[in-house]
Amino acid sequence: MDKVPMTVQGFRTLDEDLKRLKTIERPAVTVAIGEARLHGDLKENAEYHSAKDRQGWIEGQIVQIGDMMARAQVIDVTKLSGTQIKFGATVSVIDQDSEEQARYQIVGEHEADVKKGRISITSPIARAMIGKGSGDVVEVRIPGGLKAYEITKVEWV
């Protein structure tokens, strides 16, 4: 079983999701199935089939999250340091064309959320930045060609 890097925050989020699914969602769908059964013929009972579908989805999520947690290599990024970019680093960059500034934290695949500035370690921009440091310029292949970014800051927060 290959270990997958994950931040402490990412692991906590998975743990909270798993607890919610097991303690709130699973019991609620069990009740919904029981209530739907009272409505008669199960072959044509849309409420029953909807609740069973929901139950299947919940059980699938429980298995998937449990697997992610079992494979997680939890890394406390606040205990990391250095000038070179690696997993967990928060990196400030400037787009060389537009001069637009951005700040990204390099996280595990399942934690990535570009809107929150969290990019996957497997993303093209993160792969280009790994091993680089402040002052370096990285080129990232995008659908329209190459995009160049200057790394202005590397933090461990």
From TrEMBL:
Entry keyword annotation includes Transcription: yes
Occurrences of domain Transcription elongation factor GreA/GreB N-terminal (ranges): 4-74
Keyword Protein biosynthesis: yes
Name this protein carries in UniProt: Transcription elongation factor GreA
GO BP field: DNA-templated transcription elongation; regulation of DNA-templated transcription elongation
Record family assignment: Belongs to the GreA/GreB family.
SUPFAM superfamilies registered for this protein in UniProt: FKBP-like, GreA transcript cleavage protein, N-terminal domain
Taxonomic superkingdom: Bacteria
Classification via Pfam families: GreA_GreB (PF01272), GreA_GreB_N (PF03449)
Keywords: DNA-binding, Elongation factor, Protein biosynthesis, Transcription, Transcription regulation
Function in brief: Necessary for efficient RNA polymerase transcription elongation past template-encoded arresting sites. The arresting sites in DNA have the property of trapping a certain fraction of elongating RNA polymerases that pass through, resulting in locked ternary complexes. Cleavage of the nascent transcript by cleavage factors such as GreA or GreB allows the resumption of elongation from the new 3'terminus. GreA releases sequences of 2 to 3 nucleotides.
Species of provenance: Phenylobacterium glaciei
GO molecular function, one term: DNA binding
Residues covered by the Transcription elongation factor GreA/GreB C-terminal domain: 83-155
